[in-house]
Write a structure and sequence with these properties.
The structure holds two protein chains of two kinds. Chain A is mainly alpha-helical. Chain A has 13 helices and no strands. The model of chain A has no long low-confidence stretch (mean pLDDT 87). Chain B is mainly beta. Helix content of chain B is 4%, strand content 48%. Chain B has three helices and 45 strands. The chains are: A mainly alpha, B mainly beta. Chains A and B meet through helix 9 of A and loops of B.
Chain lengths: 288, 508
């Protein structure tokens, strides 16, 4: 974990020229680690990064270079910055990010969906009167309708273009978005919970690291462990939120995590963001 | 005189079928030749301190004339377990939860758990089937206020095969994690809770009423909660200072509440008196309500449970009750997605409520959200600002103010469209109304099917204040108006007197 943190700190110490999807995952990984462990370095790193990114007037310096999904990916950390600092600049920046995403269709690409949907859900819960919930859950249902294969129980199939990392991102998008909804609007919360369960059920028969890879998986994909890491993190999170059965899914998540740790993580590339999310979720589950 | 309920140790009788909560005239009551009450002025009356398997004769006298006589035999009882023998102290200091719970779990069928006079500090207690719990006068359960000591009822648990669900906790019509209640019954039957004791939620001593809508660990407990229960009777007990709703039975049947008292400060948040949800065959007789929200609210799930289980709240009789100060005397909804049907409210007395009968629904509640066959009869109201409100555009939920909910234009009828069927007001005497006799707002695409007002009198307080009768967009304040109706198929007003109104009696 220390190796990963150092990599992240190097990323964060650069003046942010552009917010990106992977940068957003780094930020959210740090936030998750701070919440799980209380590590003040993680908190400080996120706050410094956001301070360097947002002017005192609330302008995001690199906004013109970013897509709405990029902005939402890192913009999720604005909620944290606002809560921790109370600085109104972050509220203005949140409004700016929200303006960029809420009046356009939600994305279908898992990495973008993972960036945008949890942001929109949290923004709507806090500031939007929860009126976007239906659109958010309808979109997830549409993605499910279009991409989920009930035969295999996976979003990622032989014929789809999704990678294993995309499968993990889809699970994370479901878990993160559900977490950001107000449960009192239960029908929408439940929709996401059911979709997450269905996706997790599809994974349950995959008992090994390798069995999650499709035969056609490219050499590059087979070396990329991000998918496994994200799936494990999503399963841990689903258990923590009581959306998934602990006895059934915790062993699978733990198996994925241990196989990645033991055999692959030091030999193959994995973005630090997913890894930090997994570390944080593992800590949370162990603590609870 | 009519016997409503007999246990081994008590009975409840209807003394005066023609009165409301109060009898037309006081009675002197004599039980087995011994004077029980000099001037009983309630229509429904309960007798305690009886001996099991014993015949009694109850006489009712008006002046020097014996009006009626009732002979009955109490039920048999197997044994009595006194909670003090299980270690309960009743000193208000020691935590008596385990002692009382042990007595309940140890009680055999047809047995009685006796709670003598004393202050029993307890956490939530769970019921067991086929027993009676009796509170002696002066017995008080004082609910602990530290939420970290409360067990939680999980809202939804997946079944092991992940194909179904098991619901336990409930909060405002949704299956959400909630603290167990002072008295909690799950899958129990044949239980009586009787006697002149008090179940005190002690909410003013804790923080239940601070930020009340925020989930802190879990949602607030109620004082009495049932899930999947049947044949339950509560007689005589006073419920006081509940953290949230007072009595909340869900998915249960054959329930009787007799001579109960439900009390909470007028400013206490969401302290509804009695909120049965998706229940059937209910009797609520001779109960006094003075609460911070609706006295009675009939419910059937918000959206999810209503649409999944479509279990209505039905076959409900509310009689000889006294509703004081609550927002609504009897409310239907707004969480009613499973439907509410066959409700009889009769011989009740309401005083100072904002609304007498209040029906709340909205677009989106769904095709099972059918409200039908609701009848108020022989009801006396004093100072009830608006006796009748039917609102099919109630602005609840995040989208409550949206065009979808509030549009006065016809929308497509589909699986989300609710229905309001027949609502009847007969022999209602309402004095000192303020806003209007009735405000009816149906849906243009599915109007309210039938409103009947018959043989009734409504008089208005000349100094009354204007108020908004229904919570829907565009409804303005009004004062001293007759019946205002929009989107109603049939409105029948027969032999109705409206005194002191301004404008037309019927404004459609």
């Amino acid at each position: 974990m220390k190796i990963m943190n150092e990599a992240v700190f190097r990323f964060l110490n650069r003046k942010p020229a552009k917010w990106t999807l992977s940068g957003g995952m780094n930020l959210n990984g740090l936030i998750a680690l701070f919440r799980a462990t209380g590590d003040q370095d993680c908190r400080r790193a996120v706050l410094d990064y956001m301070e360097n990114s947002v002017s005192p007037e609330g302008t995001i310096f690199c906004a013109s270079a970013c897509t709405p999904a990029d902005l939402a990916a890192c913009g999720k950390a604005l909620f944290f910055a606002l809560d921790e600092s109370g600085d109104e600049r972050y509220r203005k920046a949140l409004d700016a990010v929200a303006d960029g995403v809420k009046n356009r269709p939600l994305p279908n690409i898992p990495a973008e969906l993972y960036a945008v949907a949890p942001f929109l859900a949290e923004y709507d819960t806090r500031f939007g009167g929860k009126q976007a919930y239906k659109a958010i859950t309808d979109h997830f249902k549409a993605v499910h309708q279009g991409q989920f294969d009930p035969e295999t129980g996976l979003y990622r199939t032989e014929n789809s273009k999704l990678s294993l990392a995309d499968e993990g991102l889809m699970l994370m998008a479901l878990a993160d978005t559900a977490e950001k909804l107000d449960m009192q609007i239960y029908e929408h919360y439940r929709t996401l919970a059911d979709l997450l369960l269905e996706a997790a059920r599809g994974l349950a028969p995959k008992k090994t690291f390798a069995s999650l890879l499709l035969p056609r998986g490219s050499a590059e994909e087979q070396r990329d462990v991000s998918g496994h890491v994200l799936i494990a993190a999503a399963l841990f999170k689903g258990v923590r939120l009581h959306l998934l059965n602990e006895e059934k899914y915790l062993p699978l998540a733990a198996l994925l995590r241990s196989s990645v740790t033991a055999d692959y993580i030091f030999g193959f590339p994995c973005d630090p963001g997913p890894w930090m999310l997994l570390q944080a979720e593992t800590e949370e589950v162990e603590r609870s | 005189m009519k016997c409503l309920f007999i246990s081994a140790r008590s009975c409840t009788v209807l003394l005066d079928a023609e009165g409301d909560y109060y009898a037309k005239a006081p009675r002197r009551l004599i039980l087995n030749h011994k004077e029980l009450a000099k001037e009983e002025n309630r229509s429904v009356f309960s007798v305690y301190g009886l001996w099991p398997d014993t015949e009694y004769t109850l006489e009712a006298w008006q002046g020097e004339e014996k009006e009626s006589e009732l002979t009955f035999r109490t039920e048999k009882e197997f044994c009595t377990l006194n909670v003090k023998r299980f270690g309960a102290k009743g000193d208000g200091e020691k935590d008596d939860t385990n002692a009382i719970q042990a007595a309940i779990l140890a009680c055999p069928p047809a047995g009685r758990v006796l709670i003598p006079e004393g202050n029993y500090k307890t956490g939530p207690l769970f019921l067991k089937s086929h027993i009676t719990i009796e509170f002696k006068p002066g017995a008080r359960l004082a609910l602990k206020t530290d939420r970290t000591e409360f067990p939680i009822l999980p809202g939804m648990t997946r079944t092991t095969d992940e194909k179904d669900e098991y619901l336990l906790g409930s909060w405002e019509g949704n299956p959400l994690d909630a603290f167990a209640s002072a008295i909690t019954g799950i899958d129990v039957e044949d239980v009586r809770i009787i006697g002149e004791g008090i179940i005190d939620g002690c909410a003013p001593e804790g923080d239940w009423w601070v930020n009340p809508k925020i989930k802190r660990i879990a949602y607030r407990p109620r004082l009495f909660y049932l899930k999947n229960c049947k044949d339950i009777t509560v007689q005589g007990v006073t419920f006081r200072n509940s953290p949230a709703w007072n009595l909340h039975p869900t998915f249960s049947e054959n329930l009787s509440f007799l001579n109960v008292r439900i009390e909470a400060p007028a400013v206490s948040p969401n302290t509804d008196g009695f909120d049965p949800e998706s229940c059937r065959h209910i009797r609520m007789f001779g109960t006094v309500f003075s609460v911070g929200d609706d006295c009675i609210a009939l419910k059937a799930g918000k959206i999810y449970t209503g649409m999944k289980y479509h279990t209505p709240c039905e076959d409900i009789e509310i009689a000889y009750c006294c509703m004081l100060d609550g927002h609504g005397g009897v409310t239907v909804g707004s969480e009613m997605a499973g439907g509410v049907k066959h409700v009889r409210v009769h011989h009740c007395y309401m005083r100072g409520n904002d609304r007498g009968l209040r029906i709340k629904t909205r677009r989106g509640r769904g095709k099972y959200a059918v409200i039908d066959d609701i009848c108020f009869s022989d009801v006396r109201m004093e100072g009830v600002k608006t006796p009748l409100v039917v609102n099919a555009m109630y602005f609840c939920d995040p989208d409550g103010h949206s065009d979808y909910v509030q549009s006065r234009e016809k929308q497509p009828v589909d699986d989300t469209t609710p229905t309001v069927g027949s609502i009847r007001f007969e022999r209602v005497n309402a004095q000192d109304c303020e806003s209007c006799v009735g405000y009816i707002l149906g849906l243009p695409e599915r109007p309210v099917k039938e409103i009947v007002l018959k043989d009734s009198v409504f008089t208005f307080n000349p100094d009354g204040k204007a108020m908004v009768p229904a919570m829907a967009s565009g409804v303005e304040e009004c004062k001293r108006r007759g019946v205002i109706a929009h989107f109603v198929d049939t409105l029948t007003v027969t032999n109705v007197r409206m005194e002191g109104i301004e404008g037309k009696e019927i404004d459609c």
